[in-house]
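ok so I'm stuck.
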Amino acid sequence: MHTLQKMALVSAGAVAGAILSLSINAMADKEPANATTLPLTELRTFTEVFGRIKQDYVEPVEDKKLITEAINGMLSGLDPHSSYLDPEAFKELREGTQGEFGGLGIEIGSEDGLVKVIAPIEDTPAFRAGIKSGDLIVKIDEVSVRGLSINEAVKRMRGKPGTKVTLTLARKGETKPLVVPLTRAVIKTKSVKFKMLEADYGYIRITQFQEHTTENLAQALEALYKENAKPLKGLVLDLRDDPGGLLNSAVGVSAAFLPKDALVVYTDGRAPDAKMRLTATPANYMREQSKQDYFQRTPAEVKTLPLVVLVNSGTASASEIVAGALQDHKRAVVVGVKTFGKGSVQSVLPLGNQGGIKLTTARYYTPNGRSIQATGITPDVVVEEATLSGGAATPSLRIREADLEHHLSNPNGDKESKPEAAPKADKAEKPAAKPRDDKSKGDSKDEPANPRDPNPKTDNQLNQALTVLKVQQILPGGASPVQDAKPAASK
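replied:
not stuck anymore, here's the structure
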């Protein structure tokens, strides 16, 4: 089978949530393993429990509900990313990979029976309402989420655009629950955003790995070179709070900066088709209908352009694949804090007209054989998540794969995934943010400023990333500052 056909239907999505970044796997025709070996004793117990509920439960319960809940429990008990998808959820999942779906725009996971926010998606109702990574969703409208599966929570947050829903949140540092009214919308996520940070230094942010992310990255690179009118001196690739997405898109983004045929990632699972080696080759990232390589018109200098990859605790799955590949090949300096740590691959297996299941089928490994499962990727230069406001740094609340119930173990024994000890950036005085002109951010005072608008004067990590690029310009041969020098804090 063509490598892309084997891979494009497999996802490296981050966490089950109100949007999901997965694709459909063509493994449905595969015969189930050990199909003739059934645990008869356990099945008798199951049928006895089923009968007791049907006979003795306080209210009548439909067979379909009992079976569906049993399937939900069977899958959710495996790990945080395996789940049952009813036909509606199955359809929504497919829409999500194409960059458009209905809902609030929020990535969620489960913790202690509650729903935890992994990250809001930019330019969505949840993002504009100020929902933050680490928030616990206590109620959806008047319904407590305790005991609800992730899929049930997703269903309650989804709905027709224009309809309203109220989330009750618990936030660290707040003594009272936060009640946040939201209006559902058609969520059209723009996965690649770019601009010039300053003369000769470009910035590209990838918010999620979708179907068109690779070609959009190629267009962004071409636009930056055209806008600057001369070769760039450096580029920041911002993967912070990127929850992941399609595996072939992660390969494509890596391929933009790596030599042709360089190993990007390999996967290992029990089934033969869960074992793949994916390289920086067009066959591994091009969509079937595309006829020419997306990077055909990309300037050749991109392959050697000084590069910094920004990561944080919301950098997960497909975005960790990119960071890990570029780090292992010493193609980029990774700056930020340890990533989320989702090192597993989910396949979506159709169940006829009954929806499908999202099942963890493999672990993935960086080119040097590192598994980041439940450990994350340690950056080359550690820079804490903070905003520079009046000279004070405010660290953010972190959540990672290891915090999720039933998370998979790391096959390397939960050893920290890092090439070597990562130096911390100098803790010198940080520049104070200039007073913000609220009028420039919009007419409504209720509309929060976008914290992802790239501004090195207020963003500590971006400030240090830019400094790393500038240090590379003065080192002999453009050597990495990780070994040769620490990035100097701005004065």
